[in-house]
Amino acid sequence: MSQLEAWSPRVLAAVRIITALLFIEHGLMKLVAFPAAVPGLPSPLPTILLVAALIEIVGGALIAVGLFTRIAAFICSGEMAVAYFMFHASKGFWPALNQGEAAIMFCFIFLYIAFAGAGAWSIDAYLPASRQSLARA
């Protein structure tokens, strides 16, 4: 095993944690305008954006701490795929022009985490074997 491979679970965990914290920030911006409101967001939030914000906050928190990581990451990945096709793709083909780069990146990072697992520093790693199978579902 090379030195880089030995660090793989920790780097995966760092990517998981940072991505999840950024995802939580997106949800908080929608729900409570922290650290700032999303420009042009209607008030009150339409139901679809309220659900999206809750998925981003709760799913992001689960992914950040590494609890039920695979299922949470899969749901968050799906939310970002829906967000891209509902809100970005209709504005044009190129993600750089339709402002969909973040949605695509979140989608594929969470899809990877759903398959790779939480890596190091996760609650999932400390669950009993019977509960780990749920976390891997």
For the record, the count of structural domains works out to: 1
What is the count of β-strands? 0
Shape from CA axes? globular
Low-confidence stretches: none
Describe the secondary-structure layout.
Layout: H1 3-32, H2 47-65, H3 69-88, H4 95-98, H5 101-116, H6 129-135
Helix pairs in contact: 1-2, 1-5, 2-3, 3-5
Descriptive overview:
By secondary structure, the protein is mostly helical. It has one domain. 70% of the residues lie in helices and 0% in strands. The chain has 6 helices and no strands. The chain has helices at residues 3-32, 47-65, 69-88, 95-98, 101-116, 129-135. Helix 3 (69-88) packs antiparallel against helix 5. The protein is globular, with a radius of gyration of 16 Å. The mean pLDDT is 93.
Short account of what is shown:
By secondary structure, the chain is mainly α. It is built from six helices and no strands.
Keywords:
137 residues
